[in-house]
Design a protein that fits this description.
The structure holds 2 protein chains of 2 kinds. Chain A is built from 11 helices and no strands. Chain A is an all-alpha fold. Chain A has 2 domains: 95 residues, no CATH class; 73 residues, no CATH class. In chain A, helix 8 crosses helix 11. The two termini of chain A are 33 Å apart. Classes of the chains: A mainly alpha, B alpha/beta. Chains A and B meet through helix 6, helix 7, helix 8, helix 9 and helix 11 of A and helix 2, helix 3, helix 5, helix 10 and helix 11 of B.
Chain lengths: 186, 322
């Protein structure tokens, strides 16, 4: 795959992310507690400790192209156990935002799900589980996913066809739009 | 009884039907006053903070700001672990970072003081006054039921947000569930992640997380698992049968919201707390415990009546001191 960032640009970006996350990358001594305790580690192409190491080296190119930054479930087990309190979930989250800005996503469906979720919030002010699952299935091509549960959900009155929404939808849309235009919190 | 500003969150009006019913049952029995925050909106959950930090804070802060304006002085309570985490993050940032608080206020076009406390349901039920009120209304004893209390991630982590002193072994839910007479077992997967939305967008990677939680609960002798979150509950309850089929397991561990067990101990019927609305059959195990408890209580009452000298006829001097 083509390089998105060279080492120098990568170093600048990694340092900025680390600063925003209040992390000193050179404090990581690679003990690996983060990676040993991570529930999603089986599915990663980079272990959490490798993310920290690569960022320290300035190789944001590899970090941003990884599946790991999309599969992290933000459970915070790593930072809870880190002897240096290195906030890996925030490093990953910010790397994911940077990847997204550059149009990279090694787990397309995770990005898709988040996009649809936010569009239901933009549309109704509240998340709509039924529309979310339906729209996700259609756009991801996984048409039948979880559909086996639908008859039971309807029969047992677990979900209903009516939608819940806020009254002041314009307020939610305006807030979302201004945040998108304004960028990150300083 | 106490009053709270209530932020139900989106799932409470759809998939979290058993959570809603059982909580409303308890609230009505002990006279808890929950004032729903007017025109509340989605907290943004994981999706918002994945995409845009400011949006994540602003969407959650809008609810806090409305509560502070319309329901002044009340703590905000929310049943969902994710809503709790997002609201608490917004509150934390508002309290600790004046520049960010102002920026959030600006985009909200509302006053955001970040003074209201954000509580989850475990914080709520931990309150001594509420526990006393529940104890007074207990009609059943769930003795003999081994319960694995599943907290998931966001109730306890990160600790600077939640204030949890032991994020690897929280005990709030264990203490609450033992009010019912059931036993909260010690187990290892209390705070392991259920996979959250990855059960939808990356199921091939996330299903094994659920398998591991059931496996550890079973290994430690759990009859049931209880949760305190709509999504944790759905991920476990809705997918247990599928895990059994696809992983070749034979788990038979129904999953409840912790409020369901409390409601049952307070005398709720199956319909009152939605036990028939689970995905994985949950009625039998509870029915068995309730029946055994009732038999035992009846036998004890009978034995007690026999001991009572007044019922034995004339007062016997030797027993009068009892």
């Amino acid at each position: 795959m083509e390089k998105i960032l060279n080492r120098e640009e990568g170093k600048l970006l990694a340092d900025r992310i680390a600063k925003e996350a209040n992390v000193a990358l050179d404090e990581c001594y690679q003990c690996g507690k983060c990676s040993a305790g991570c529930p999603m580690a089986n599915s990663y192409d980079l272990m959490p400790r490798q993310i920290v190491h690569l960022m320290h080296l300035g190789d944001m190119d590899t970090v941003m192209k990884s599946k790991t930054i999309w599969l992290c479930a933000s459970c915070h087990t790593c930072v809870e156990r880190c002897p240096h309190d290195i906030d890996i979930p925030t490093l990953i989250e910010k790397s994911r935002m940077e990847a997204q800005k550059r149009g990279i996503s090694a787990q397309r469906n995770v990005r898709l799900f988040n996009d649809i979720f936010m569009e239901t919030v933009r549309g109704f002010g509240k998340s709509q589980e039924v529309i979310l699952e339906g729209a996700y299935n259609v756009t991801s091509g996984r048409l039948l996913q979880d559909m086996a549960n639908v008859p039971q959900m309807l029969k047992k009155d677990i979900v209903r066809p009516e939608l819940n929404s806020v009254q002041d939808k314009e307020d939610i849309r305006r807030i979302m739009k201004e945040c998108e235009e304004g960028g990150a919190v300083k | 009884m106490k009053q709270y500003a209530y932020y139900p969150g989106c799932s409470m009006d759809s998939t979290a039907v058993t959570y809603k019913k059982s909580f409303e049952y308890i609230a009505s029995k002990i006279g808890l006053v929950m004032k729903e925050i007017p025109d509340w909106n989605c907290c943004g959950s994981t999706a918002a903070h994945t995409k845009n930090e400011k949006m994540a804070y602003a969407l959650s802060a809008r609810n806090i700001a409305i509560a502070e304006e319309e329901l002044p002085g009340l703590d905000i309570v929310t049943p969902c672990a994710s809503c709790y985490s997002r609201l608490k993050y917004a509150s934390y940032v508002g309290k600790n970072d004046e520049a960010k608080r102002q920026e959030i206020e600006e985009v909200l076009r509302r006053s955001f003081k970040a003074e209201a406390e954000v509580l989850n349901f475990l914080d709520l039920f931990e309150d001594p006054e509420i526990q006393e009120a529940i104890k007074e209304k207990l009609h059943r004893n769930l003795e003999g039921l081994n319960v694995a209390c599943y907290y998931g991630c966001l109730m306890s982590r990160p600790r600077e947000i939640t204030g949890e002193t032991d994020p690897e072994n929280p005990m709030k839910m264990d203490e609450i569930i033992e009010l019912t007479g059931a036993k909260a077992i010690a187990w290892d997967y209390k705070t392991e992640c259920c996979g959250a939305s990855h059960q939808v967008d990356a199921p091939e990677h996330a299903r094994e997380l659920i398998d591991r939680i059931f496996r550890n609960a079973q290994a430690n002798g759990a009859d049931v698992i209880v949760t305190a979150c709509p999504l944790c509950n759905m991920n476990l309850d809705m997918r247990e049968a599928e895990i059994n089929k696809n992983f070749g397991r034979k788990y038979n561990i129904p999953v409840f919201q912790f409020t369901e067990l409390i409601a049952i101990a307070m005398g709720a019927s199956a319909a009152d707390c939605g036990i028939h609305q689970h995905f994985f059959p949950a009625f039998d195990v509870i029915n068995e415990v309730v029946k055994t408890g009732a038999k035992k209580a009846a036998a004890e009452a009978k034995a007690e009546a026999k001991k009572d000298p007044l019922k034995d006829g004339p007062i016997v001097v030797g027993k009068a001191g009892r």
